[in-house]
Specification:
By secondary structure, the chain is α+β, with helices and mostly antiparallel strands. The chain has a single domain, classed as PH-domain like (Roll), CATH 2.30.29. Helices cover about 25% and strands about 40% of the residues. The chain has a seven-stranded antiparallel sheet with strand order 4-3-2-1-7-6-5, covered by helices on one side. The chain starts with 6 loop residues before the first strand and ends in a 9-residue tail after the last helix.
């Protein structure tokens, strides 16, 4: 059983729709140690969240400041881009998402390095008591 990921930020962002008109829609977003969950704001009932997991995220890109808003793009490994905007006041979402992504990628790299050094192939390679 895994523990739920720690919530780092919870609030509202606007996400650009992928439809023909590309309208901006208000979404409730939850930034966790695992990624960004995007929930619909309307409808009353509980909706299924779209999850942008750090494992599949490449970068947070294209920051633009215009008319009191910060525009940014989350680029996914499959080449998909998800556009967001938020008010410029306070700590910007794009910075928090980018920092959380870097933290996640660093932890992944450390774990990969540990796994490589603890693998059976590496344990006997330093000349320790090997059987001949």
């Amino acid at each position: 059983m895994s523990l739920p990921a720690k919530v780092m930020r919870d609030g509202q962002l606007e996400k650009r729709s992928s439809g023909l008109l590309q309208l901006w829609k208000r979404k409730r977003c939850v930034l966790t140690e695992d990624g960004l969950r995007v929930h619909s704001c309307g409808g009353g009932g509980s909706s299924k969240a779209k999850e942008l997991r750090f494992e599949r995220m490449v970068t947070v890109d294209c920051v633009e400041h215009k008319r009191g808003l910060v525009y940014f793009t989350v680029v996914m490994a499959a080449g998909k881009e998800v556009d967001f905007r938020c008010p410029q006041d306070g700590t910007a979402w794009n910075a928090e998402i980018a920092l959380a992504l870097v933290r996640h990628k660093n932890l992944e790299a450390v774990q990969t390095c540990r796994d490589r050094h603890l693998s059976p192939g590496h344990l006997g390679s330093a000349g320790e008591d090997e059987e001949l």
